[in-house]
Design goal:
754 residues; alpha+beta; 16% strand; cell membrane; ATP-binding
C-alpha cells in the first residue's frame, strides 16, 4: 500500500449523516479527515451523542450537550490515551501542561476508538518527525504497543485478564462502611488506650516492690505489710481494670465489625444485582459466591480481631517505649537494636505475600466453581456416568490450591521463627547490658527487673505485629476482590433524570439498531415497528440474532447503535425497574426458585392475593395439576424446579407472567422443549397470555406462530424479510427455505418412526 493511500481522507460516507455537514464546515483548506469516533456518553455517563475527529492537522470535538466545536492543533508533547473500565471506554487528550479534553463512550465504539488513537499517534509522529506516514501507521496495540496483524481487531496481550496485585491501602476504602459507626469505633479506641495503660501498670510496680521490699528484706530489714498491701492492691486493681476494659472494647468492636461485614455483603450483593447480564456472562457462580461469602467473612474477622490486636500492639509499643526511655534511655536504645532487621523482614515478606494471597483466593474460586457446576447439574453428571471425571476435576483444583498454599507457607514458616529469634537475641543483649549497668551501680536490680518485664511485653507485641502481615495481606486481597465488584459500572446504566412511564400502550420501534459483543457484531441496521397489541414472530437460523434482539428490547443489554423506543420514548430514558415491570418474559428454560408453587407464581408481584395467584394459574392451565400435588399451591418446589416436568414448569412460568399483567410480552422458544401434548396445553395458556398485549415470539417450530400478525425473518443479524406467513411463502425467500427445510426434517422423522 502506498503512502498516498494510507493518508487518503476518510470518506464522508463513514461519518454519520447527522455530523457530515457540520464536519465539512469545520475543515480548513487542505485538511482531511483521517478517523472519527461517535461518543455516546457524557462525563456523568448519561447518554449524549458527540463526535471526535482526527484530521491531518487537528483533533476536533463536538459534544451534543454543549453544542459547540472544540479544536486542538497537533503539536509535540500531545498524547491521546485510550482505555476502558467497567464497560465504559475512556479517551483522554493530554499535553505536558495537563488534560485538554476527555470523552466517554460505550464499548460498542471501542474498535473505532482504537483506530482513532492509531491515526492520531501516526499523524502526530509524521507531523513532528517528518517520517513517512506509511511507516507511522504500522499496526500496534495502543495500550501495550504489541504488533497487530493488518486485520486484527483485538490485541492478544491486552484482551487477557490482567490481575493487579492487591494493595494494603485497599483496606482504607472500608472506611465508607465504617463511617456510620465512628462513635462506637472512637469509644473502642478510648477503651483500648485505657486497657493498654492498665496492662502497663504491673511492671512499673515491680520496681518499688523489688527495691523497697524484697531486696531490703534480703539485707535483713523487716517487710512493711501496709507497703506490700498497697503494691499488691495496685497489681490487683490494674489487672481487674485491664480485664473489664478489654472485655468492653472487644465486645463493642466485635459488634461494629459484624455490622460492617453485614453492610459490606448487602451492598456488594445489591450492586451485583444492578449489573448487566454482560458482567455475569464472564463470571463463574462459585467465584462470585466466594467473594460475597468467604471474602467478606475474612474482612469481618480482620476488623473484629486482628485489626484490634494491631491497634493494641501499636499503642502498647508506643507507651512501652516511652516508659523505657523515661526509666533508662541507654537501656531503651539497646532494646531497639532488632527493630531495623524485623522491619526489613516484614517489608521483604509482605511483597511476596501480596500477590500470593490473591492467587490463593483465585485458586479457591476454582474449587468452589467445580462445586457450583456439579451440584446443580448432578442429574447430568449421573446420567452420563461422569462422577469419576468430576471427582478428578475437584481433586485437580484442590491439588492446585494445595500447591499455591504450600508456596506461601514456605515463606511464612521461615519468617515467623526468624522474628522470634531476633526478639530473643534482643532480649539477651538487654540482659547483658543491664547486668553490666547493675555491676557499675548505674541502675538497681528493681529497674532491671521492670525493664525485662517491659521488654518481654515489647518484644511480644513486636512479634504479634509481625505476624499480622499475613492476615493484613489476606484481608487486602479479599477487599480487592470485593471492590472489583463494587467498582464495576453497569453497561446498562440508570438514567440521571428518568422519564415517568405512565400507562404503557405497548408500541415498539426498533430504529436502525446494531449491537456488538465486544468487537463481534451480532445485530446491525435492524429497523422494526410494532403496533400496540400486535403479535410479531421472530424467525431465523440459530445465531441469526433473534434472542439478542429480544435481550435488547428487555434492556438486558444496551444497543451499540441506534435506539429502541416504547410509546415513542427511548427505553434508556426510563428507570430500568419501572420499564421491566411492564414486560412479561417466558423463557425456553423456565427458572423456578426453591419455595412453594404460590411463591414462584407471585415472584413478580409478591403482594398478590391467593385469589389472584389462582386466577393466573387457571389462565395458564396450571390449576389442575397444582391441585394434584400433595399440598397444592403450598407444595414445595425443588431448586430450579426439581420435581416438576418441563411442561409444568413452563405453565407456572406463564402464570408468573400473567400475574404482573404486562403490556409487552416476550416469548423466547416457550414450547421448544416439550412434547406435542404438553405443547397444546401451553399453547392454550399462551393464547390467554397474549390477548391485548404487544407480543414478540421466538419459536423453533414455525407452525407455532400461526397466530402471529406478522413474521420478521432475521439472517446474520439483519432483517431480510417481513410479512405474513402466506406472503412470505409466496415470495419464496428466506422464510420459504426455512419452512421447507423444517417440513423435510419432520417428514424424515415420521419416516424414521414408521
Amino acid at each position: 500500500m502506498t503512502t498516498e493511500a494510507l493518508a487518503a481522507p476518510l470518506p464522508f460516507g463513514e461519518i454519520s449523516p447527522l455530523w457530515r455537514d457540520e464536519v465539512q464546515l469545520q475543515l480548513r483548506s487542505q485538511e482531511n479527515v483521517l478517523a472519527s469516533l461517535e461518543v455516546d456518553l457524557d462525563q456523568q455517563l448519561r447518554f449524549v451523542k458527540g463526535l471526535v475527529v482526527v484530521t491531518n492537522q487537528r483533533l476536533l470535538s463536538r459534544s451534543g450537550s454543549q453544542g459547540v466545536w472544540q479544536a486542538w492543533d497537533l503539536q509535540p508533547g500531545q498524547s491521546l490515551h485510550h482505555h476502558d473500565h467497567a464497560g465504559v471506554g475512556h479517551l483522554d487528550l493530554l499535553n505536558p501542561m495537563g488534560l485538554l479534553g476527555t470523552w466517554r463512550f460505550t464499548l460498542g465504539q471501542n474498535l473505532q476508538a482504537i483506530r482513532l488513537v492509531d491515526q492520531f499517534q501516526a499523524q502526530l509522529e509524521s507531523t513532528v518527525s517528518g517520517r513517512p506516514l506509511a511507516q507511522a501507521l504500522t499496526q500496534v496495540c495502543p495500550s501495550c504497543k504489541a504488533p497487530l496483524e493488518p486485520d486484527q481487531e483485538e490485541c492478544p496481550v491486552c484482551t487477557k485478564v490482567v490481575h493487579t496485585p492487591p494493595s494494603t491501602w485497599t483496606l482504607f476504602r472500608l472506611w465508607r462502611f465504617a463511617k456510620p459507626y465512628r462513635g462506637q469505633l472512637l469509644l473502642g479506641f478510648v477503651l483500648t488506650l485505657l486497657g493498654t495503660a492498665a496492662n502497663l501498670v504491673p511492671p512499673y510496680l515491680t520496681m518499688p516492690l523489688m527495691d523497697n521490699v524484697l531486696i531490703p528484706f534480703q539485707n535483713g530489714q523487716t517487710i512493711d505489710p501496709m507497703l506490700v498491701t498497697m503494691y499488691m492492691g495496685g497489681l490487683l486493681g490494674s489487672a481487674l481494670a485491664a480485664w473489664v476494659l478489654s472485655w468492653a472494647k472487644t465486645y463493642i468492636l466485635a459488634l461494629v465489625s459484624e455490622r460492617i461485614g453485614a453492610d459490606l455483603r448487602t451492598t456488594t450483593y445489591e450492586h451485583l444485582l444492578r449489573l448487566s447480564l454482560e458482567y455475569f456472562g464472564g463470571k463463574r457462580t462459585g467465584d462470585l459466591m466466594s467473594r460475597i461469602g468467604s471474602e467478606s467473612d475474612r474482612i469481618c474477622v480482620f476488623l473484629s480481631l486482628h485489626l484490634l490486636d494491631f491497634a493494641t500492639d501499636v499503642i502498647m509499643l508506643t507507651m512501652t517505649a516511652l516508659i523505657l526511655f523515661s526509666i533508662n534511655p541507654w537501656l531503651a536504645l539497646v532494646t531497639l537494636v532488632p527493630l531495623p532487621f524485623i522491619a526489613w523482614m516484614i517489608h521483604f515478606v509482605r511483597d511476596r505475600l501480596r500477590t500470593g494471597f490473591e492467587k490463593i483466593d483465585r485458586v479457591w474460586g476454582e474449587v468452589t466453581n467445580v462445586l457450583a457446576d456439579t451440584i446443580p447439574g448432578i442429574r447430568v453428571v449421573k446420567a452420563f456416568a461422569q462422577e469419576r471425571r468430576e471427582a478428578n476435576r475437584f481433586r485437580e483444583a484442590n491439588k492446585h490450591n494445595l500447591a499455591v498454599n504450600d508456596r506461601i507457607n514456605k515463606i511464612w514458616s521461615l519468617f515467623s521463627p526468624s522474628v522470634s529469634f531476633l526478639t530473643e537475641l534482643g532480649l539477651l543483649v538487654v540482659w547483658a547490658f543491664g547486668i553490666w549497668q547493675v555491676s557499675k551501680g548505674q541502675i538497681t536490680v528493681g529497674v532491671l527487673t521492670a525493664f525485662i518485664a517491659y521488654i518481654s511485653r515489647f518484644y511480644g507485641r513486636l512479634d504479634s505485629m509481625s505476624r499480622i502481615v499475613s492476615v493484613t495481606q489476606k484481608s487486602a486481597s479479599a477487599a480487592k476482590r470485593i471492590f472489583d465488584i463494587l467498582d464495576h459500572v453497569s453497561s446498562v446504566p440508570e438514567p440521571v433524570n428518568p422519564v415517568p412511564m405512565g400507562k404503557v400502550q405497548g408500541s415498539i420501534e426498533v430504529r436502525d439498531v446494531g449491537f456488538r459483543y465486544g468487537n463481534r457484531e451480532v445485530n446491525r441496521g435492524i429497523s422494526l415497528k410494532i403496533a400496540p397489541g400486535e403479535m410479531i414472530g421472530l424467525v431465523g437460523h440459530s445465531g441469526s440474532g433473534k434472542s439478542t434482539l429480544v435481550n435488547l428490547i428487555c434492556r438486558f443489554y444496551d444497543v451499540s447503535e441506534g435506539a429502541i423506543l416504547v410509546d415513542g420514548v427511548d427505553i434508556r430514558s426510563f428507570a430500568i425497574s419501572d420499564y421491566r415491570q411492564n414486560i412479561g418474559l417466558v423463557l425456553q428454560e423456565p427458572f423456578l426458585f426453591f419455595g412453594t408453587i404460590a411463591d414462584n407464581i407471585a415472584y413478580g408481584k409478591p403482594d398478590a392475593t391467593r385469589a389472584q395467584i389462582i386466577a393466573a394459574a387457571r389462565a395458564a392451565h396450571a390449576h389442575e395439576f397444582i391441585l394434584r400435588l400433595p399440598q397444592g399451591y403450598d407444595s414445595m418446589v425443588g431448586e430450579r424446579g426439581q420435581g416438576l416436568s418441563g411442561g409444568e414448569r413452563q405453565r407456572i412460568s406463564i402464570a408468573r407472567a400473567l400475574l404482573i399483567d404486562p403490556r409487552i410480552l416476550i416469548l423466547d422458544e416457550a414450547t421448544s422443549s416439550v412434547d406435542s401434548e404438553t405443547e397444546k396445553e401451553i399453547q392454550k395458556a399462551l393464547e390467554n397470555l397474549v390477548q391485548g398485549r404487544t407480543t414478540i415470539a421466538i419459536a423453533h417450530r414455525l407452525s407455532t406462530l400461526h397466530r402471529a400478525d406478522r413474521l420478521v425473518v432475521l439472517d446474520r443479524g439483519r432483517v431480510v424479510e417481513e410479512g405474513t406467513h402466506d406472503a412470505l411463502m409466496a415470495a419464496e425467500g428466506a422464510y420459504f427455505n426455512l419452512y421447507q427445510a423444517q417440513a423435510r426434517n419432520m417428514d424424515m422423522d415420521m419416516d424414521d418412526v414408521k
